Amino acid sequence: MSLLTVEHLTMRFGGLVAVDDVGFAAEEGRITALIGPNGAGKTTVFNCLTGFYKPDTGRLALRADGREHLLERLDDFRVASEAKVARTFQNIRIFPQMSVLENLMVAQHNRLMRASGYTLLGLVGAGRFRVAERAAVDRATYWLDRVGLTDRADVDAGTLPYGGQRRLEIARAMCTEPVLLCLDEPAAGLNPRESAELNALLTFIKAVHRIGILLIEHDMSVVMGISDHIVVLDHGAKISEGPPDFVRNDPAVIRAYLGEEEAEDG
Amino acid sequence: MTAGTLAERGAAFLPTALKEAGIAAGIALLLALPLVGARTVSEGSAFVVTPRIVELALGVAFVFAGRLAIASLRGGHHLPVIVGALAVAALGWRFALPSAFLGVVAIAGGLAVACIGAIGLLRARRDEIPAVARIDTAGLLRQALGWLGPALIALAIVLPFLPFADRRLMDIAILVLTYVMLGWGLNIVVGLAGLLDLGYVAFYAVGAYSYALIAREFGLDFWSCLPLAGVFAAFFGIILGFPVLRLRGDYLAIVTLGFGEMIRIILLNWYNFTGGPDGISGVPRPTFFGLPFKRAPPEGVESFHQFLGIDYASIHRTYFLYFLVLALALITNAFTLRIRRLPIGRAWEALREDEIACRSLGINPTNTKLTAFAIGAMFGGFAGSFFATRQGFISPESFTFIESAIILAIVVLGGMGSQIGVVLAALVLIGLPEFFRELHEYRMLAFGACMVLITVWRPRGLLASRDPMIRLSRRRARP
Ligand SMILES: Nc1ncnc2c1ncn2[C@@H]1O[C@H](COP(=O)(O)OP(=O)(O)OP(=O)(O)O)[C@@H](O)[C@H]1O
Ligand SMILES: [Mg+2]
Predict the structure, then answer these.
(1) CB A231 within 8 A of CB A24
(2) Residue A250 pLDDT greater than 90, yes or no
(3) Which of A75, A85, B116, B191 shows a CA-CA span of 20 to 30 A to B98?
């Protein structure tokens, strides 16, 4: 059974069908890309998966800790805390006035809350909490090293350059120890060097941490370079699916992208 | 800067500056004509309108001068402005102007403009000063703040033993500390969790009435009632918070505003229980851990002065109240500082920054906000029971909306989330007006002026800089 199975997902906004009966699967240790022209409904799929939208129909099953979670029934924060799905946002959402390290500590909130006896043990400075906090800082340090922000750990996150903020958001998502990581256009606004570093980072996460990655991306060099499986959406519907080489040459995909370009030109 | 360009600039600048000042003065004249220019006095049974030409003229002249000063400063003419402003201040000081208010405007306004001019002059000359001699103001401020906290605490502890600590000063100090404590309590809700609470005084009232009612009905003393009052207030915080914390920003503010009024109106109308507008009198005064502060204690009870074998003095109780509220306030502060290092405190701040991101990280926003609300309410409750024991009498009149507004102003002006900012703001907003009772009429005016100045110059509050509560570098530096 797959890590994530999406079946018959439909989401309407008034009369607009943003996602139309879409189904796909994502596997552990693989990168599944979700591509499509602007307004195809990619972000809406993410919002349904992570509980921010309640889909009209559909079954979103995720296997974590040997249990099956039906994501469409969970509140947004439960999707993260119980089903262990982490995400980033198309418009970066970091905590700008907290330090980089604090951003990563917030991501470990639930674990630290339990260790601090829901604050009571923490108030008296119990040893158990101190141990947990040190472990949390170590985990944060590990991810800071991976994304190359270690020497910026104590500055306000809002002062990081754009690329740094994108990487911080990924590090923060990883600090929640997810089984599925959903990235909404992580390469948007990055220069070619940063984009290549992102490829390396995602490949590392996939290879070493063996979690599933769901990736929305417009940058074809990223998508074609690192994805194992690609799902193509257009006007809310799935028009193609398969390995990169197949999707690249699929006439339906070419038509969707070219059609859009023609419309822009005209 | 060469003399030629200066002269050119001067030539172009004077007419525009005069024009600006003229327009401002014209508007001031229009506004002031009905408000200031005519005064109705009752003479016997009839109202007579008497003109106030001098006041009107002076007011308009001040507006003209002020606007001219602003324009000149912008034009880079610092020195003439400084001299002129000092002259105006000196005139206001030397001659009795027709109203005290105009005097205040002349002195304070003149000095303020002179200060701004001096700062501008220093800024303009900065390039000519060698880099070594330049002052790193930000660094100095940071250092000073590090010292300020401990220094203020030390001062607060020795204050009653200082020679000038008379009754009046102690009363003002107690009042200021009560507001500091309320400010710190509200800071948890507004400053840390970012929940705009316009009805904080409700929890203050719940604390005060809990103490008064429990003491009256069950005869418990202050020390048993204090925790109970805190628990009751926290309970009310949860009851209110549960339905409304889903609301965002402005909506939350409006609902909390309504809640604050609701509590006050219930207290006002539930006559049998709360005494309505008559309030509750005879609230038990605090005891020094069982020893009352009384000249003649009841049979079988030893009073404080008898226990220590000293003469009775009514100021002993004032001193005790002072140390009591100081201790309560310091506990609030220590608690806040501690909880900011814990996951819950971090989650509050994160929620203030971005709630959606918090949800995506698995933080339950409702529960997290609810704890902030309840803990803030609890400290409000503690402060309320202190208020009740200090006054000995409480009535709904003490818990009006203006109290919420003042506490909120202390938090916002101090700098959201800044502990020491709250102290400074409480000193300015509560302490100064108490000291200068003569200017009491202008208190609200000064209040408004402070608000405007702060929002213009330091929109994030007096001391808004925030240091991270956990650092990597220090850990790394350690072997
Ligand atoms: N909350 C909403 N309310 C109404 N319409 C929405 C909402 N969210 C998305 N839509 C609409 O749904 C459609 C799909 O939007 P979505 O953001 O999922 O596209 P996308 O594939 O992520 O596009 P992009 O590449 O530009 O990010 C768009 O037409 C959008 O206007
Ligand atoms: Mg999108």
Answers:
(1) yes
(2) no
(3) B116
**Residue partners of A140: CB distance under 8 A and separation at least 6:** A101, A104, A105, A108, A153, A171, A175, B472
Residue nearest to atom 6 of ligand 1 (CA): A13
Q: Which two tokens stand for residue B466?
A: 């925030």
B474 vs A173, more confident: A173
Q: Enter the tokens of residue A90.
A: 């198309």
User: Tokens 């409006």 identify what position?
Assistant: B254
Buried b / exposed e across B217-239, counting CB within 10 Å, b at 16+?
Answer: eeeebbeebbebbbebbbbbbee
| Structural domains of chain A, ranges and CATH numbers in brackets | 1-84+178-266 (3.40.50.300), 94-177 (no CATH)
Cβ pair B377, B236 in contact under 8 A: yes
Q: Is the pLDDT of residue A263 over 50?
A: no
- Give the SS3 label for residue A70: strand
d(CA B422, CA B179): 9
CA distance linking residue B436 with residue B429, whole number of Å: 11
Nearest to B360 among A87, A97, A112 (CB): A87
**Low-confidence spans in chain B with pLDDT less than 70:** 1-12, 126-139, 290, 295-297, 300, 305-306, 309, 435-443, 459, 461-462, 464-465, 473-479
* DSSP string covering B222-262: HHHHHHHHHHHHHHHHHHHHHHHTTS-HHHHHHHHHHHHHH
Query: Position of tokens 């970066």?
Result: A92
DSSP string, B351-417: HHH-HHHHHHTT--HHHHHHHHHHHHHHHHHHHHHHHHHHHSEE-GGGG-HHHHHHHHHHHHHH-TT
CA distance A262 to chain B (A): 37
Choose among B338, B354, B469: nearest Cβ to A123: B338
d(CA B444, CA B450): 10
- Asked if A47 is an interface residue toward chain B (Cβ–Cβ < 8 A), one would say no
Q: What is the DSSP letter of B282?
A: -
CA angle, residues B43, B49, B51, in degrees to nearest 5: 125
- Amino acid making up residue B55: E
Cβ-defined contact of A80 to B359 (cutoff 8 Å):
yes
Tokens of A192: 């070619």
Written as six digits, the tokens of B320 are 């005790």
Residue A97 clears pLDDT 80, i.e. is over it = yes
Please tell me the distance from the alpha carbon of residue A66 to that of residue B355, in angstroms, as a whole number: 30
Structure tokens at A33: 């890309």
| A20 contacts chain B (CB < 8 A) | no
Q: Which of B343, B354, B364 sits opposite A95 (nearest CB)?
A: B354
d(CA B249, CA B35): 37
d(CA B361, CA B407): 33
Q: Strand A4-13 relative to strand A16-26: parallel, antiparallel, unpaired?
A: antiparallel
How many CB atoms sit inside 10 A of residue B314's CB? Answer: 10
Q: Kindly provide the ipTM of the predicted complex, given to two decimals.
A: 0.90
**B50 backbone dihedrals φ, ψ, rounded to 5°:** -110, 135
pLDDT tens column, B39-65: 777 777 777 788 888 888 888 888 898
- In the numeric block, which tokens belong to residue A49? 């998966």
Closest CA to A190 of A213, A169, A211: A169
| Amino acid at site B148 | L
Q: How far apart are CA B411 and CA A172, in angstroms?
A: 31
What string of DSSP letters covers B111-155?
Answer: HHHHHHHHHHHHHHHGGGS-GGG---HHHHHHHHHHHHHHHHHHH
**Among protein residues, the one whose CA lies closest to atom 11 of ligand 1:** A18
Mutate to test the pocket of ligand 1, among A11, A44, A91 (most ligand atoms within 8 A of CB): A44
